[in-house]
Design goal:
Strand content: over 45%
Order of helices and strands: HEHEEEEEEEE
Helix content: 10-25%
Strand order of the largest sheet: 1-3-4-5-6-7-8-9
Radius of gyration: 20 Å
Number of helices: 2
Number of strands: 9
CATH class: Mainly Beta
CATH architecture: Beta Barrel
CATH topology: Porin
Number of domains: 1
Structural class: mainly beta
Length: 185
Amino acid sequence: MLKSFVMGAAALVVAQAASAQQFYGLGSIGFSDFTGGDADNVCRSVQECDRTGTAFKLIGGYKVTPSLAVEAGYWNYGRLTGQRNGITTELEASAFGAGLAYHHPFAPKWLGVARLGLSAMDAKLSNNAGFSAQESSAQFYGGLSLGYALAPNVALDGGWDFSFGSVNGSNFEINAVSLGLRVGF
């Protein structure tokens, strides 16, 4: 009796997972903004400072339920650049990470996603005078996005992502805004 109950429950879970399974990929490009710590130091008392970098992300996900997915991704947040007396200093960051994403349909063609996870953040601070410091750290990341379905498995996706980095003993925050495509398989 117990064996048949367990087998029936397992079959129900597998059937539910099979009907809800959906792999998806997301690629987007936009811009990032670095603040705090060494990001502020790079831009302090400089002649020119560009806090925005070109950011992009690639994410792959698997929906374990219609609303909850596991994801893995790569984020390149670009770089911040400051110039003072002929010395150019750059702070750049990129990360690999994995986490959970909650998908919520707002209307038939609109889908909101909230994601949270842990990443391996690589940050590098360098200048053209020969200084270079690099640090890898485990950091939380998060994000919100809003998608509009262009076709049953293709959506235009606008998102905001945030994360943190650390280099040379100094912490900083990164915010990125991007636009891209999400494709379901």
